[in-house]
Amino acid sequence: MKMLLTGGAGYVGSACLRWLIKQGHDPIAYDDLSTGNRAAVPNPARLVVGDILDQEKVEHTIRTHDIETVMHFAAVASVPESIAQPDLYWRVNVLGTKSLLDAMVACEVKTIVFSSTAATFAFTEEMPITEASPQLPETPYGTTKLACEWIIKEYARAYDMGYTIFRYFNACGADAGGDYGENRPEESHLIPLIFAAALGKRDTLKVFGNDFDTRDGSCVRDYIHNDDLAQAHQLAAETLQPGMGRDYNLGSGIGTTVLEVVQACERVTQLSIPYEIAGRRPGDPATLIASSEKAKQELGWKPQYTTVEPIAQTAWDWHSKHPDGYAS
Fold it and tell me: What is the tens place of the pLDDT at every residue in 293-312?
């Protein structure tokens, strides 16, 4: 199947692109490279450099490559940044999604798989979070991603499109073999920050909060390997039809505290990870865990990574091999 992956040179998007190639599909990455990496796309011919807001270029790309379906990853995705710069998040995430949908309508592409987030949910509800849990986002990031979900559903109803929305939790890990991994200009994810401290690239890791109502006082999160996300995207694209609407949570269903992740990384690296306790960040809930039973039952999704330590091992294989990221 010929697929367009917006944000396809980014961390999750490129992992899905590489997975889809292995499964015999024909994906093309469309990315402005603001946070993505050329080197994350294994064949330069599979990368189109462009802005998601450039509808004319998106249309040209769809037509040139005979695209049959779209996976939409392109977004800005930092909770603290969204609080400081909500205008950026509304422009890129919401207007960018509308631009993409308009291009799809113009080119008569009828199906889309959308990368949403657990940040669309209310964090005061009982865990684990299911697809029926209230969506009451507490940050501009979550609000804009929920707005994207609404736009997709409205376009689907008006133009007979099919959609699958994935709300995934903490994406992490790297490709087997350590050739591709997580590499951003400004890193905010926990595991790469831990390894940066382990490699001496930062003095200490900051643990934001040790007074949450959790077993050790640090936040509890649900960590999901990129390959497991990619498998879900493949299953969704292969079964999606016009007029169909589906939404799924993707996570391991297991909560791990920040300090437990640090300990797992220490076991993987056999190094002591220096860290310091800092104050809570705005918008951080104490606990965030997914129920992914719906995806398992309806898509036949079978995640291979269920605990943090083997995920951390794949990430360490990448970071230890590429201490300076793709530039090395």
Answer: 999 999 999 999 989 999 99
Picking from 296, 161, 317, 311, the residue whose alpha carbon sits closest to that of residue 241 is 161
CA dist., res. 103 & res. 97, Å (int): 10
DSSP-derived secondary structure letter, 38: G
141 is an active site residue: yes
In DSSP notation, 54-118 reads: -HHHHHHHHHHTT--EEEE------HHHHHH-HHHHIIIIIIHHHHHHHHHHHHT--EEEEEEEG
Lookup result for tokens 């940066």? 196
Bridge pairing between strands 220-225 and 162-168:
unpaired
Report the alpha-carbon distance of residue 304 to residue 252 in Å, rounded: 9
Q: Which residue of the set 141, 180, 223, 248 is catalytic?
A: 141
Q: Closest by alpha carbon to 68, among 14, 116, 20, 9?
A: 20
Residues 6+ apart with CB under 8 A from 76: 82, 88, 89, 92, 93, 141
Residues, the chain = 328
| Other CB atoms within 10 A of residue 126 CB | 9
pLDDT interval class at 10 (50, 70, 90): very high
CA 70, 230, 195, 320 dihedral sign is: negative
Whether the Cβ atoms of residue 27 and residue 3 lie closer than 8 Å to each other: yes
Domains and CATH numbers, the chain: 2-172+223-250 (3.40.50.720)
Q: What is the pLDDT of residue 185?
A: 81
pLDDT tens string 139-173: 999 999 999 999 999 999 999 999 999 999 999 99
Give the chain's mean pLDDT. 95
Report the pLDDT value the prediction gives residue 281, as an integer from 0 to 100. Answer: 84
